[in-house]
Amino acid sequence: MTKSNISSWEKIGNIGVITISNGKENYLIEPEFVNLSDFRKWTNDPELKGLIIRGLGRNFSAGASYNDLIDLAKDANLFTQKIKAGKQILDFIEDLDIPVIAAINGVCFGGGLEIALACHIRIATEKALFAFPETILGLIPGLGGIFRINQLLEKNNIYELILNADMVNALDAKEFGIVDYISESKDALDLALIKIKNLTHERSKDV
Fold it and tell me: Which CATH superfamily is domain 2-206 in?
């Protein structure tokens, strides 16, 4: 297992797993939850057939804490650089030519939700919760999440999630189109591994 910023990398067979790990809530200290050069190196593996992104423990990620956001915003140039770096990582995830699954346990808020939206498939446990709480502070999701969620949700649901900063449970998230599958297991990684192995098997047959 190797580390990069607040994330770790391991391979399970030919499947890569990135685990976000920063305290109980897996807060994103900054948008760049993994170094892009490390990410490129990890995924530049001809044997790699799929990727799963998860949070360690009971939560995917609560995004940035209020205090971290305030501290980061004190330096406008640094804030802009960090947002740009975060967007580059999420664009990189979205553009990968292998399937990428977000395995979502518990809280998936703010930047955490933006990470999940950049993945090709989202699998959540029944107790998962989704929100953009930063909108209460007058902040707009800055890593491309608005654009991505606009492709998934109807207008009324966008208002609920973004403008009202409502928390959405897993069942409603699936109905809205944010979540693709709900895992009956307490750990979404279990179903994610099954789904991604099925996907990679089908892709290899097509080739």
Answer: 2-enoyl-CoA Hydratase; Chain A, domain 1 (3.90.226.10)
Interaxial angle between packed helices 76-95 and 111-118, expressed in degrees from 0 to 180 and rounded to the nearest 10: 30
What percent of the chain shows pLDDT beyond 70? 85
pLDDT at 81: 84
Catalytic residue among 25, 30, 32, 114: 114
Catalytic residue among 47, 134, 154, 184: 134
Active-site residue flag, 184: no
The structure's pTM equals 0.89
CA 96, 122, 25, 132 torsion: positive or negative?
A: positive
Is 154 tagged catalytic? no
- Domain residue limits, the chain: 2-206
Q: What is the pLDDT of residues 8-29, one digit of tens each?
A: 999 999 999 999 999 999 998 7
